[in-house]
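We modelled the chain as a single entity of 243 amino acids. Its sequence is:
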Amino acid sequence: MTVLSVNVNKIALLRNSRGREFPCVVGFSEQLISLGVKGITVHPRPDERHITRRDVYALSEMLKDKSQVEFNIEGYPSEDFMKMVLEVCPDQCTLVPDSPEQLTSDHGWNIPPNQSVLQQVLSELRDGGVRSSLFLDPDSEMVDHAQGVAADRIELYTEDYASHYAGPERESVFECYRAAAQRADQLGIGINAGHDLDLQNLAKFLQIPNILEVSIGHALVVESLQLGVSQVIERYLAIVDAS
């Protein structure tokens, strides 16, 4: 069964726009957990424009007695980021190749020119007891390189799938993702996915076998504004439970 991990960055962005602790990121995460969500994801950025370091530590503290819920921290493996991750020791750390000024993640790792850096940080995560995941485009060759640096999992960057979902190239794009996931499975690498997945396109994507986790934030928050958070979570859980 696929785990739904909710990215709460947008809740932090909404809070930061008013300069007070409302909405509360920890409180909203607790509500998600009470509705059946089994994963919380954050992507703190250097400028703290949404999730802050304080949020990361507060969420970690809240989740200590919730062993059924996984904590996933995403980010570029800078020295400061790695120090925070190893102090918090989340269940999973997803490494993304973002520059500090990027609005949002928009590509996966090109592993060969970053091999030495990735080998070092993945070794640090392994020694710290943190499961690793690399953000990747649906490229089977790059999946082979992920095995070469000993990543535990990959997270397939699904923006291309989402953008073609309603168009004539949907099936050919979908097959690229299927092939990359199949290659990861053959190599014993776990498979996560995320970015622009939503209530309309998620079920088809989960026709790909062995997707362990989907991380969804922006679409889920927008859909919750439209439909109500409890109904939206119920519908997402029904999709992942059926996978």
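As a brief sanity check on the tokenised model: The beta strands are 3-7, 39-42, 70-75, 92-95, 131-136, 153-157, 190-194, 211-216. The chain has one domain: 3-241.
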